[in-house]
Design goal:
This protein is of the alpha+beta class and about 190 residues long. The protein is built from seven helices and six strands, in the order H-H-H-E-H-E-H-E-E-E-E-H-H. The structure holds heme C.
């Protein structure tokens, strides 16, 4: 009887341990193959945590044309897996396997009861970063500086168009270098 109870307790604790595994702990099984090819996560809108939006204002040229008016030319929505913000708040950084997806949306602007309002329309592509604390894939040019880096265009979501993160990503992320290359000022859950 006592033995059965102990075995039962053991199985129960094993199952709660598995249940407690954070989504980011399986990133390298789900979204990265053995040579470091990155695939685009599909269910981020319904299953992940929304971090924040960047509104890309129309340029002067665009706003001066009578047809376009003011407002946003595009919206960038950023998501990460569940559990990542909590880990970040506790440890001051991202866990291994954390993925950040930036979805690029076109925007249209119209007059609504709240004012002149821009809303996101169709997806143009996705930027993806995957946290790598172990320095995996040293000879793969999409990996380095603590992350895997990839851009996917909307007409080719199954294959990244990025050839080298050093020449296509890193330069533009230098202002965020001190924050592990992430522009965290846009994300209340990582910032406040
Ligand atoms: C033209 C400059 C530029 C280039 C090139 C660029 N980024 Fe970014 N990236 C930014 C800026 C600025 C932000 C935040 C504001 C925004 O989205 O406009 C950002 C945000 C992101 C985010 C959301 C997380 C964060 O850092 O805030 C991801 C993910 C991302 N970029 C990945 C990539 C990857 C992968 C590449 C290369 C394939 C890349 N970026 C190339 C400038 C750039």
């Amino acid at each position: 009887m006592f033995r059965k109870l102990i075995i039962g307790l053991f199985i129960f604790s094993l199952s709660t341990m598995t249940m407690a595994a954070e989504p980011y702990s399986s990133s390298y099984k789900t979204f990265v193959d053995e040579i470091g090819n990155i695939s685009l996560p599909k269910n981020y809108r319904s299953e992940w945590v929304f971090l924040g939006t960047w509104s890309i204002a129309k340029t002067d040229v665009e706003t001066s044309s009578a047809a376009s008016g003011h407002g946003a030319a595009g919206l960038h929505n950023v998501y990460t897996q569940r559990g990542v913000p909590e880990y970040f708040q506790q440890h001051g950084g991202f866990p291994d396997g954390a993925i950040v997806v930036k979805e690029l949306l076109k925007a249209v602007t119209s007059s609504m009861t709240t004012g002149t309002v821009s809303r996101g329309t169709e997806v143009e592509g996705w930027f993806v970063m995957i946290k790598d604390k172990e320095g995996r894939f040293k000879s793969n040019p999409l990996w380095g500086d603590g992350w895997g880096w990839a851009l996917f265009n909307k007409d080719q979501p199954d294959m990244t168009v990025t050839k080298s993160y050093k020449s296509e990503c890193l330069g533009c992320h230098i202002p965020a270098r001190e924050d592990d290359w992430i522009y965290k000022s846009g994300y209340p859950l990582l910032r406040d």
